[in-house]
Amino acid sequence: MTMAYSNRYRSHHDGAKALKQKCGASESGEEYLPPILAERAKTPLVIYLHVPFCNKVCSFCPFHRPDTLDRREYHRVLIDKIEALAKYPYMKAPVDAVNFGGGTPTALSFRQMDDVLSALHRNFDIRDDAEISVETSATELSDDMLRVLKAGGVNRLSIGVQSFDDEARRLLGRRGGRERAIDAVERALDAGIVNTGIDLIYNYPGQTKERLLSDLAIIRRLGVAGLSFYSLVLHEKTPLYRKLAADGKLDYADLDREYDFYRTILEELGKSGFAMLELTKLVRNNLDRYRYMELRHSGGSCIAVGQGAGGNIENYYYHNSAHTPPVSDQIAVSSKGRVVLPVFRTLDAFFYEMQKGTIRPAFYAEKLERDLQTPFAPVLGRLAGEGLIYSQNDVYFFTEKGSFWGNNIIDELIRSLLPVV
Ligand code: SF4
After folding, report:
1. How close is the Cα of 207 to the center of ligand 1, in Å?
2. Residue nearest to atom 2 of ligand 1 (CA)
3. What's the 142 CA to ligand 1 centre distance in angstroms?
4. Nearest CA-CA partner of 68 in 60, 77, 59
5. I need a labelling partner for 120 at 20 to 30 A (CA). Which of 83, 166, 297, 395 fits?
6. pLDDT (tens digit, 9 = 90+) per residue, 162-197?
7. What does the mean pLDDT of the chain come to?
8. Contact, 10 vs 231, CB < 8 A?
9. Contacts of 287 (CB under 8 A, 6+ apart)
10. CATH architecture of 27-294
């Protein structure tokens, strides 16, 4: 394969961060938030709850930090925050989606999870048809946990399987073997959570095409609703990196193999009705719309609950941390944030659409009242020439090769836009 870029970005890059900085408003959170919170939200509301710990740290994970939390009481931190936030008139609007992420949210005990879900329903007006989503792992999805999640209205599960292959699971530091992972997925589906998806890591050291095909065959047989798939990224300071460095195996794979595996995933799962929802997400027969993410990027507000959670209240984007005080005594929202100009929300929607494989410069040029032709035309022309995108009626779509390089392309387009924002 000819290389479109020298280095493949395997997830969002920092272009969006640069864009947010560029779109910063002069207003502070202390000025911006009080009138907003004093009125019922008119834009869709979603809630993100973060549980920043895991019962076992995966060998490849760069997110693990020394754990200074009192885990036994962490659910109380979440519940206190839910209660503190719910008192604002803004939060009286119905909630369209709730997402528990981490870490591993089901590192909470099933009783703690029950308490948190009850507090949510008691304090917020969660719509009957809201998407309520929980990330979990094969080993933590006990029958008790499943029962609590079902009773709490959870209707979307994302199970961090990563691979069904015993050897791969050991290498990646996942607990339990193939049968345990299969059993977790089957029990979730049997419990009636149709929208159950899994995470898959591919292109790990020692993976062969046969081992990948075996994982894909299991996925097809199980009938999961969706799949988030990631090529393994080796981060320094992780146990896996150190092990490979010690064994002299850091350069175990090249981009040709990565692309071959990527294509195999699309091809094999395409036979069973899986199609791309986002660059790293496939969905079977439209069973998962991932409303939470859609609403976050289409003008909604995301109420962040828990340490490490990020969200936005209208144009105030913020991040919670244990050490950051609230905006003020009256405003129980993290002060680690910034107000952005409205243009950022439109650009955010534009770039999220790109994550879903569609580029609409003409549509957004009109919305933004800006000339996008000048910055975009040379880039889009080159990408089309290299077979990474194609166009239909002023709308551009990624080719298969383009979606492989999708995060690079989006990053390049964001950067080309920075001068005109
Ligand atoms: S479960 Fe997720 S967050 Fe936790 S260690 Fe593994 S990869 Fe990291």
Report:
1. 20
2. 103
3. 18
4. 77
5. 297
6. 999 999 999 999 999 999 999 999 999 999 999 999
7. 94
8. yes
9. 194, 195, 225, 226
10. Alpha-Beta Horseshoe (3.80)
The mean per-residue pLDDT over the stretch 59-76 comes to 81
Residue whose token pair is 């981009």? 255
Task: Quote the CA–CA distance of 41 and 394 in Å, as a whole number.
Answer: 35
d(CA 95, CA 203): 38
How far apart are alpha carbons 291 and 38 in whole angstroms?
A: 26
The residue type of 164 is F
Residue type, 49: L
Handedness of CA 171, 174, 177, 178 (dihedral sign): negative
Q: What is the total residue count of the chain?
A: 421
- Residue nearest atom 3 in ligand 1 by C-alpha distance: 103
| Residue carrying structure tokens 């609230």 | 326
Tell me the CA distances in angstroms from 302 to 26, 43, 95, one per residue in order: 22, 10, 10
* Percent of the chain that is helix, strand, coil (3-state, to 5): 45, 20, 35
Taking the C-alpha atoms of residue 334 and residue 229, their distance in angstroms, rounded to an integer, is 32
Q: Among positive and negative, which fits the CA dihedral 172, 177, 178, 181?
A: negative
| Residue pLDDT, tens place only, 277-300 | 999 999 999 999 999 999 999 999
| Domain spans, the chain | 1-24+341-421, 27-294
From atom 7 of ligand 1, which residue's Cα is the shortest distance away?
61
* Confidence (pTM): 0.95
Contact by Cβ (8 Å): 369, 375: no
Name the closest-CA residue to atom 6, ligand 1.
58
Instruction: Give residue ranges with CB within 6 A of ligand 1.
Output: 54, 57-58, 61, 63-64, 102-104, 160
d(CA 293, CA 311): 11
